[in-house]
């Protein structure tokens, strides 16, 4: 058969020039008729029409794909395989119109992202960041001023009960927390299996002691976590966002924390990324922040790459891969 050409976006390479998922997984692409290479780094981090003409498949981390990327007359591209579950960096309607399949890798992020959300819950409950700073600055006498929050009987809430949200509740089961979620597409049988009560959005914000954002970014969810909803939360509650930054109104979140109407937050994502060091949310001792990478572990990176590369193998062999975003 003719050679099937695969481009891997260069943002998967660490500062040492090695792929963040390790070399071993690249062996999946060493199949007959498949040729792969790292793509040239383009200004602005956008796939160009020339690249869409060069490759049958592109495996993308953060690199964006726009309608202009697919506008070339000699386009060869058939597949974009995301190293991740979000696809707000990809113009999906343009892909569909051009006949380009988009796949994601939910099997790669399910456990790592759920574990990350739970990490924030545990760190905030135990006030780890504050106690770390007390220790580093020799302020041991202040430790009784920062008593943590016990989790037994507390309420863990989730905006979303999909792939990651469900896994979060599975992981939290031994902690004996009460689980509630809001998701208009939730499977009631799954919720019952997990012991999670499905509630309306206002109830979710009112009752949660730890509220995790586990929904995709869309026009419907942009700014979803608003000043009004934050105003419903308990002053002792925490907000955790490991999904996408624009889902949360950062100004409203800052106001809620600075006024004492919210106990704190755990944020892996921001409205603007990288978030500027002047972001006032970074000044709080009760806000734990990470650079949109708390889930980045060797396990996560390997699973993302395996999922993306298996999608490539399926398309090269004429099979439909799993996790297709735009089936038409």
TrEMBL record:
This protein's UniProt keywords: NAD, Oxidoreductase
Domain D-isomer specific 2-hydroxyacid dehydrogenase catalytic: 49-326
Family matches, as PROSITE patterns: D_2_HYDROXYACID_DH_2, D_2_HYDROXYACID_DH_3
Residue ranges crossing the lipid bilayer per the database entry: none
Pfam family, one: 2-Hacid_dh_C
Similarity comment: family membership: Belongs to the D-isomer specific 2-hydroxyacid dehydrogenase family.
Name of the protein in its database record: NAD(P)-dependent oxidoreductase
